Amino acid sequence: MRINGQRLLDDLYALREITATPGQGVTRFSYTEEDRRVREYLARISREYGFCMETDAVGNMRISPPDSNAATIVGSHIDTVRNGGWLDGIYGVMSGMEMLRTFSDNGVHTDAVLMIYAEEEGSVFGSTMTGSKFLTGKYTAGDLNELKDEQETSLLEHLKNCGYWDEDDFAKAFPMDFTGVDTALELHIEQGPVMDSEGLQIGIVDTVFGMHVLEVEYAGLGNHAGASPMKGRRDPMSAFGEAVTAIERIALDAGNGVVATIGKAAVSPGGSNVIPDTVKFTVDIRSNSNENTEDAVCRIREAVSEIAKARSVACVIRDVADSSAIPFSREVIRSMTALAEENGLAYRVMDSGAVHDTAMLAPYTAAGMIFVPSIDGRSHVPEENTKEDDLICGAQFLLDYVAAAEEQRK
Ligand SMILES: [Zn+2]
User: Fold this and answer.
1) Which helix (H) or strand (E) holds 351?
2) 344 Cα to the center of ligand 1, angstroms
3) Residue range 248-299, pLDDT digits in tens
4) Which CATH topology does 210-323 take?
5) Ligand 1 midpoint to CA 406 (Å)
6) Parts of the chain belonging to CATH 3.40.630.10
7) Separation between Cα atoms, residue 104 and residue 109, nearest integer Å
8) How much distance in Å is there from the Cα of 311 to the middle of ligand 1?
9) How many whole angstroms from 162 Cα to the centroid of ligand 1?
10) How remote is the CA of residue 190 from the centroid of ligand 1, in Å?
11) What is the separation of C-alpha 267 from the centre of its chain, rounded to a whole number of angstroms?
């Protein structure tokens, strides 16, 4: 069976136009008019093919061929970041749709369903993977009011406005019962430079990086920039500067794929003629091994404290987030590897530095992910792109994998 590559590309080009920021990348937030228009696009195809389409109480959408028993979930998301790219999420969704259409066109039965996970990017509420977190019970009823957008509108209000909310459905559907679900799969762009630089077609994802985020506060002595001699200052900014390079050095020296990022810093009071009294910053540390991540966290804590001590600056370190690395199913990785070999594809087994909805499902079913290259490794920007051939190759691989797995289950 071959997918209709042109049909998939045509869908993606058409959907690229559904954005709140024409000419400036794709901006498609959950629970908005743009989001509704993409859902309508999917509904139109579903009607054409006689697929059943259901939306649950938090806005996850499920599209099933009439006689599918839903043993295989294929899914991704349709929302984007602000001024994001045209492929993140929607590529996996439309490839899943193309897979269902190809089965149908060829009169082949499938037990697959297509899942569109709601609010993956966290653009509205600042919290990622909202839909899949409800499905897996990480979010519960209390979070419906807790999650709020910038205007203080709660998730629950958004759901009511969109017409998704149904209290009885919510009580029944969450958390999801994974009985009978054999596999959950997601096809996604890599969003990093590895595959493009190595000329690969298919990435088979091994492990999603775990993450530990620290917040550090250095407090010194605020004072006049002119009247305070250099000697004897207790300047938290100087300590911060030293910490930045020390943290980078620790990650580089670890040599085991650990990455550490300082993405946020606040200087107080923030005047050009004032020695700051505090500098507060975050450190985001990730790797594919919990042990390596924690080892780096330990070293960073140590270094950050020592720098403070040497400069007579007070130091408080808080843990603000901590998530384990998530390995995908060994069986799925083995089967995907065999399929890539069989088809003579340029592939590699690799880790994902970004988290995805399907990783949330990994504790409940055999989960797996497929990557296609991102040109120059760019994503979450308007320049995000992938060669047409690679887009088609990834979608074909997804179909081949599902078809082979279903054949084997018979
Ligand atoms: Zn994504």
Assistant:
1) strand 347-352
2) 27
3) 999 999 989 999 999 999 999 999 999 999 999 999 999 999 999 999 999 9
4) Alpha-Beta Plaits (3.30.70)
5) 26
6) 5-208+325-409
7) 7
8) 43
9) 22
10) 9
11) 30
Residue that the structure tokens 């043993």 belong to? 71
CB-CB contact of 405 with 21 (8 Å) = no
Give distance in angstroms: CA of 356 to centre of ligand 1. Answer: 6
In this structure, is the dihedral angle defined by the CA atoms of residues 136, 138, 143 and 147, taken in order, positive or negative? Answer: negative
The phi and psi torsions of 34 (rounded to 5 degrees) equal -65, -45
Second CATH level (architecture) for the domain 5-208+325-409: 3-Layer(aba) Sandwich (3.40)
Distance 245 CA to ligand 1 centre (A): 31
**In the chain, where does the domain assigned CATH 3.30.70.360 lie?**
210-323
Q: What is the reported pTM?
A: 0.89
How many A from CA of 119 to the centre of ligand 1?
10
> For residue 172, how far is its CA from the centre of ligand 1 (angstroms)?
28
Distance 15 CA to ligand 1 centre (A): 15
Structure tokens at 57: 């109480």
Cα of 40 vs centre of ligand 1, distance in Å, is 20
> Is the pLDDT confidence value at 410 over 90?
no
pLDDT in tens, 136-189: 999 999 999 999 998 999 999 999 999 999 999 999 999 999 999 999 999 999
